[in-house]
Write a structure and sequence with these properties.
Elements (H helix, E strand, L loop, with lengths): L2 H22 L3 H24 L10 H20 L12 H23 L5 H20 L9 E2 L5 E2 L2 E2 L3 H23 L2 H11 L1 H6 L4 H27 L1 E2 L6 H14 L6 H17 L6 H14 L3 H11 L1
Antiparallel strand pairs: 1-4, 2-3
Helix pairs in contact: 1-2, 1-6, 1-13, 2-6, 2-9, 2-10, 2-11, 3-4, 3-9, 4-9, 7-9, 10-11
GO cellular component, one term: plasma membrane
Subcellular location: Cell membrane
Keywords: Cell membrane, Membrane, Transmembrane, Transmembrane helix
């Protein structure tokens, strides 16, 4: 087994085992922390598909997370206070809310991707951020859903025998979803489709001369990435039971990029490692100073300058020695 494969197994086993142990020993806070970590890791894995493997630096990925959360909160709000009954969307059924979150974010990714992917470099970065801020200010302007104050989700999604009010079951759903997301991305990047996407990252002109429509391949990857982030947002809405436009602010997109780059872009376990380090350091440093973003930035600079392949690359190399 390669060092990176062994590292992935070790990280995922520990992530599965430790949070329930903390919960059963009377420390439910750490289970909540782990649940948030796993959900953000799903969003980071989705970003890694286009950033790490596709070379598309999106500064608006948090918009998909926020839209996914609102796809849970808005139907639950109308289920409680009325409205949207004729569309069948006034509901707390997870079998409606989760597919709705995936569909809405996939559609948004398709529409925006058609425009964004006609640009590259800094122009792509800026236009993805611009679309995300458009959604941010749109949600702020809708007073029925709380505007800038946000919206409380009074009832979590109902998923048959699965009770999301139970913190262990919510963590279990998020953890299994992370495993599926990692496996899905791995299958995609190792497929013929994924090879074209990676080829378009390294040498798009050569791929075009070979007859591949790199624009179409990148667009499909962009839509898949957005839909996965939307699913993570639906989980996040159920976890926090409170959603606000702040969830889709550009700074949240920066945090997801931090996780991917720190953990190791274009690796299976990298986004998970990045999410772990981000959550742990955020929790530790925020108790010391309100300026905890400063050491985060210095850490990221150090990793980019001196650690090839991020934390995943560093740890797997040490394991192989």
């Amino acid at each position: 087994m390669s060092g990176r494969g062994g590292l992935t197994i070790a990280v995922m086993v520990l992530l599965a085992a430790l949070p329930p142990v903390f919960y059963w020993t009377g420390n439910p806070f750490y289970l909540d922390l782990a649940t948030r970590l796993v959900i953000l890791a799903i969003a980071a894995v989705s970003l890694n598909l286009i950033l790490g493997y596709g070379g598309l630096v999106s500064f608006g990925h948090a918009a998909y997370v926020g839209l996914g959360a609102y796809a849970v909160g808005i139907p639950a709000h109308h289920w409680l206070y009325g409205g949207l009954e004729s569309l069948g969307l006034a509901t707390v059924s997870g079998y409606v809310q989760f597919p709705l979150a995936i569909a809405v974010t996939a559609l948004f990714a398709l529409v925006t991707g058609l425009v964004c992917l006609r640009t590259k470099g800094v122009y792509f970065i800026m236009i993805t951020m611009a679309f995300a801020q458009m959604i941010f200010y749109l949600i702020v302007s809708i007073e029925e859903y709380g505007g800038d104050d946000g919206l409380v989700i009074d009832t979590r999604s109902e998923l048959g025998l699965l009770n999301l009010d139970n913190p262990l079951q919510l963590f279990g759903l998020a953890y299994v979803s992370l495993l599926v997301a990692m496996l899905l991305v791995r299958m995609i990047v190792n497929s013929r489709f994924g090879m074209v996407v990676q080829g378009a990252k390294n040498n798009p002109e050569r791929m075009a001369t070979m007859g591949f429509n790199t624009y179409a391949f990148r667009l499909v990857a962009y839509v898949i990435s957005g839909a996965m982030a939307g699913y993570a947002g639906a989980l996040l809405g159920n976890f926090t039971t409170f959603i606000s436009p702040e969830m889709m602010d550009w700074s949240r997109s920066g945090e997801l990029m931090f996780m991917v780059i720190l953990g190791g872009a274009a690796t299976t376990v990298g986004p998970v490692l990045g999410a772990i380090v981000f959550i742990v350091l955020e929790q530790a440093l925020s108790t010391i100073t309100i300026y905890w973003h400063l050491p985060f930035g210095l850490l990221l600079m150090g990793v980019v300058l001196f650690v090839r392949g991020g934390l995943a690359g560093m740890l797997s190399r040490n394991k192989d020695r």
